[in-house]
From TrEMBL:
Domain of life: Bacteria
Organism expressing this protein natively: Faecalicoccus pleomorphus
Record-linked SMART domains: REC, Trans_reg_C
Name this protein carries in UniProt: OmpR family two component system KDP operon response regulator
Keyword presence, Flavoprotein: no
One cellular-component annotation, GO: protein-DNA complex
GO molecular function: cis-regulatory region sequence-specific DNA binding; identical protein binding; phosphorelay response regulator activity
GO biological process: positive regulation of DNA-templated transcription
Gene: kdpE
Residues modified to 4-aspartylphosphate: 54
Amino acid sequence: MNKMKILVVEDDISVKNLIVTTLQAHGYQYLSAKDGQEAILEASSHNPDVILLDLGLPDMDGVEIIKKVRSWSNMPIIVVSARSEDSDKIEALDAGADDYLTKPFSVEELLARLRATQRRLSILQNASLSEASSFTNGDLHIDYAAGCAYLKDEELHLTPIEYKLLCLLSRNMGKVLTHKYITQAIWGTCWESDVASLRVFMATLRRKIEPKGSSTRYIQTHIGVGYRMLKVDEES
């Protein structure tokens, strides 16, 4: 598998050196930027596969960078920030970030997030998800054209909301979707009651695709933030 080209946007020299050294040791190509203006220039000029983005930059907030990049590109953005409040994570994810890693972080976790992003990029490159007629992840199969979902070749009896949730998560596999993003996509609004309903529907959906006794986990909860569909590895 070809290694990705990664743009590291970080003004803290020690953190940048840690990230860059890690990337070099594992064969990744990299570019670096120390502030927002340089980051936007590097992203638009070199089209990296992934951006590792600190939010606290000297010239602009990282969320503004996310919004600017999202105006012209869907390249994955992984936030690496010392801001650990749920509100900060939600703001960045709602602006268009794909993932959020809190400082201090382990090298192993950073590499795992990059591998997950690389798998997602590979899936996106091998199929046009917006036009895909089907989706398969482990024993889970969705026939978008027919409007049906199956687990181990047995049709799942899903409510319309459960099916919409499953399709939304599958089309964004590997990406954290916030409560706001999901409720607006499903109901068109984001009231507190919608978030409460989302939790109920997500619980019933999980019981159907992750039945009692099953070791397979398709949906990961990010407490206070949202949900993510996990890629089921063949060996796990």
